[in-house]
């Protein structure tokens, strides 16, 4: 990470731009016409990602458990996204975590600036992703921190405002790690593998976990900007705690952008590149169009965030990742002579550095790694 010491340009806090009352956003935030949210998007009221009730997942009702497994398999195959309710995480804790971060972002600037980040680790208070000089930027600020492994967990980088912020974050992380572990077993079973196989491929108990809190201020020209550009997540599983009042996440489905409608106290789950990559290398997902060739196929999906002129948004994205030095390669059980690897092996740290250099860029970061045939 020593190649990423400083940002290429002075950092501007998007929240400050919003609070200034400017009627026009700076050119640095204006997306090219084909990337703007008004192009090829839909907010159809009758379309949404699946909502799956996890009650009974580990109970004695085998038929109910099988039905839940099937629902998750279909959602992974057809969407790469789904929502989970009755997931075991305290609703009160979810609300406390979201509101704690809202309070932080409304703290005085000098308080937030004390936690300003650098591109070396991204940990702390930030306002841009990627280090390309002159890049078009997203209309958002964020806070990034490490939770696992414990060697990277530095509570001194965690905010002390509000007063219970660190306590809430610690408990929130513990409960989400447990939920991710349960979901990893489901994904592994649905692939026809032992329930621990996918977890072991990620490093067993020595996985990585981190949190990015997203703050999307009001935007005077929301038709020209994005809160977060189109991308797929580089890790394994992402659990998103959305804003409970303001929608903004859009998922790409059949060349359309679907605005997700969050269910009350649900987590939005999506599959990252590391799980999708293993499936793709196995040949279970077609090379060009991610066409489904088996009932056990998963895909990471492009998604983005839109902004609006009347309301701010806060969301918490929890990333459950492979151990940093684990080689990213297909599971041996899913490789055959007629299904050779499509991508060169690299560690998760190497892949993450590659992504950080580029910033959000659709699925192109995955495609550009493909081995020549």
Strand order of the largest sheet: 2-3-11-8-13-6-5-4
Distance between the termini: 31 Å
What kind of assembly state do the chains in view correspond to? single chain
The counted number of beta strands is 15
Identify low-pLDDT runs: 278-297, 362-373
**What is the molecular shape?**
globular
Average predicted local confidence, pLDDT = 83
Secondary structure tally, helices? 9
Q: What letter string, H or E per element, gives the SSE order?
A: HEEHEHHEEHHEEEEEEHEEEEHH
| CATH H-level superfamily | B-lactam Antibiotic, Isopenicillin N Synthase, Chain
State the CATH topology. Answer: Jelly Rolls
Briefly, what CATH class? Mainly Beta
> What is the SS-derived class?
alpha+beta
Report helical residue fraction: 25-40%
Radius of gyration: 20 Å
Instruction: Report the major sheet.
Output: 8 strands, mixed
Named CATH architecture: Sandwich
Strand residue content: 15-25%
Number of domains: 1
